[in-house]
């Protein structure tokens, strides 16, 4: 028969071993459940650009009748992109409904004077948006990569419509 002190030390060692084995799991869970990251969300810049591009397209649609249909389509698409990005930003870092959105509305923009300059401004904005989104895709988690990749593809499609 074992002495009581011997039984306690065996039980003590097992408990210590269990704690050591559980440490990586606890660390992983605490990291996964941690609060907001220290860096700003990578999607904020994309959402801000989408809102800005939408304001530019709206200004072009109002100023240049020849470009109105395509500019309105671009404005609608870029507003949709901004909304989808805002939803994803809020999903990852929920905010109080009383707080303003993390992506503020873009100020109104002035359309370039000529239709060709306005068209070129839209092309530049869409090229920039497509490239910016495509550049982020490899560094994002799967769901976000799909969202951002879709936005990049959408901008590429809008460029084809514009040309």
Automatic annotation (TrEMBL):
Residues 78-121 are annotated as: Disordered. Residues 111-121 have a biased composition (Low complexity). The keyword Signal applies. Residues 88-98 have a biased composition (Basic and acidic residues). InterPro entries: TAT_signal. Residues 1-27 form the signal peptide. Residues 100-110 have a biased composition (Pro residues). The keyword Transferase does not apply. It comes from the Bacteria. Keywords: Signal. This is Tat (Twin-arginine translocation) pathway signal sequence. It comes from Saccharopolyspora antimicrobica.
